[in-house]
């Protein structure tokens, strides 16, 4: 096998993800030469602007530069957090594999002395730039003061420890992968905080016309996770994907059956339209698409129509 180059962002979490892919590819293909190339994305450079504020400029914020290098044949594989990948994949590229999901839940990391979400003081300052998280937090606790926060996991934890916030909301998957699970104050239940589309999974992207690479990365694919994430991405795509409105979804596979829950909410948390659908793993797009149509028909189109849209949306909460 010729040398294979994996492209990744340079954050600690992104490097963990790329090294996970590298070590597993070398394990499945003994003697293969796999190297990692670090690529800086716009999302890594623009840290003084919140994600919602970027609006349409946020399209492909954490992925475009990696995709450009793949199309130029400078890298063979790109490893992404799946929720960063737009629902409409760049022409010439495809998602060749989706990893087994880590814990999909969001997590509260609070200052010392706080034992859980319900123990946060009245008016506690919570750091999150995610509209999805903000909306669901406001619905549960309208007294909380929500403030934007950017940067990698360590940067956000430092801001918490320095007293800038009383708590921050992060994806538990990233904390667990980085060995920071001990910092988690509480895993937030799916009823309190429905996760982002694709949360906890890695998307392994390759060129569409590269069957050799498709076969090479095939062992990284986890079928049940792939099916569930495909249903969630179909839901996001059915809603238009890029509107700057809180959107969340979670699909689960049980045997040959698939069930998906989803919501579209107002940013202030005053209104949420929720729903669920079920189907078969043979047709993961069906339940996601039907759920999007159902929610649009019950007022989701009105909520989506109130917000500006990106050309190609993602579900990214950055971490």
Brief characterization of the structure:
32% of the residues lie in helices and 22% in strands. It has helices at 12-28, 42-45, 51-54, 64-71, 131-140, 153-161, 172-177, 211-217, 223-238, 285-305, and strands at residues 4-8, 34-38, 77-81, 93-98, 106-110, 125-127, 145-147, 167-171, 186-187, 202-207, 247-254, 257-265, 272-280.
Blueprint (SSEs and pairs):
Layout: E1 4-8, H1 12-28, E2 34-38, H2 42-45, H3 51-54, H4 64-71, E3 77-81, E4 93-98, E5 106-110, E6 125-127, H5 131-140, E7 145-147, H6 153-161, E8 167-171, H7 172-177, E9 186-187, E10 202-207, H8 211-217, H9 223-238, E11 247-254, E12 257-265, E13 272-280, H10 285-305
List the helices and strands in order.
Answer: EHEHHHEEEEHEHEHEEHHEEEH
Kindly state the mean pLDDT as a whole number? Answer: 91
Termini gap: 34 Å
Low-confidence stretches: none
- CATH class of the largest domain reads Alpha Beta
Taking strands numbered 1, 2, ... along the chain, how are they ordered across the largest sheet?
A: 2-1-3-10-4
């Amino acid at each position: 096998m010729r040398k294979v180059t994996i492209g990744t962002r340079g954050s600690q979490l992104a490097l963990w993800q790329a090294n996970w892919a590298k070590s597993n590819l070398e394990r499945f293909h003994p003697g293969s030469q796999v190297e990692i190339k670090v690529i800086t994305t716009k999302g890594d450079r623009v840290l003084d602007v919140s994600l919602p504020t970027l609006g349409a400029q946020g399209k492909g914020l954490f992925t475009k530069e990696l995709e450009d290098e793949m199309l130029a044949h400078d890298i063979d594989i790109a490893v992404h957090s799946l929720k960063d990948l737009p629902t409409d994949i760049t022409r010439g590229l495809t998602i060749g594999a989706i990893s087994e999901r880590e814990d999909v839940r969001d997590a509260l990391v609070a200052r010392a002395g706080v034992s859980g979400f319900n123990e946060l003081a009245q008016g506690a300052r919570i750091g999150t730039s995610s509209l999805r998280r903000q909306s669901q937090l406001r619905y549960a606790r309208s007294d909380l003061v929500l403030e934007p926060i950017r940067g990698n996991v360590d940067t956000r934890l430092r801001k918490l420890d320095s007293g800038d916030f009383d708590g921050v909301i992060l994806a538990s998957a990233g904390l667990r992968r980085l060995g920071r699970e001990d910092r988690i104050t509480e895993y937030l239940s799916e009823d309190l905080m429905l996760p982002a589309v694709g949360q906890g999974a890695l998307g392994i992207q390759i060129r569409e016309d590269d069957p050799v690479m498709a076969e090479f990365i095939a062992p990284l694919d986890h079928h049940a996770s792939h099916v569930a994430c495909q249903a969630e991405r179909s839901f996001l795509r059915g809603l238009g994907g890029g509107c700057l409105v809180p959107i969340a979804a979670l699909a689960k596979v049980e045997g040959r059956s698939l069930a998906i829950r989803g919501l579209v909410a107002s940013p202030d948390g005053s209104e949420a339209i929720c729903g669920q659908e079920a189907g078969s793993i043979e047709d993961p797009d069906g339940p996601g698409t039907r759920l999007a149509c159902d929610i649009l028909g019950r007022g989701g189109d009105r909520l989506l129509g109130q917000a500006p849209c990106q050309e190609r949306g993602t579900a990214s909460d950055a971490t």
